[in-house]
Amino acid sequence: MNNYLIPANTKSGQLILGIFKPFDLILLGTGVLISLVMLMTFPMSSNWQVIIVVLPGLISAFLVIPVPNYHNILTIIIECYNFFTNRRNYIWKGWCVKDVEDIPKESK
Length: 108
Known about the structure:
Blueprint: H1 22-41, H2 47-63, H3 73-85
Helix pairs in contact: 1-2
């Protein structure tokens, strides 16, 4: 029998740890690094200061979370932006005179 086994996600072999692109790791590392620098720089005297300091790391982590049918949240945001900002051309292909073959006319 001809049984073929096709992996469900063939692109995961090209990703780091099967999840991340290099840009994803750079984005995550940058956000976490900014948060760490801010933790060392600013005093943590109130809750809102802690939230502001940790926010860059949380935002970058949120953007690289893997989701089904897309790569991650950043990919969804980019796809939505492209959909709403780019021009969309819908080609209508339906019942049309040009699509029908010429039918020979019967003699009278």
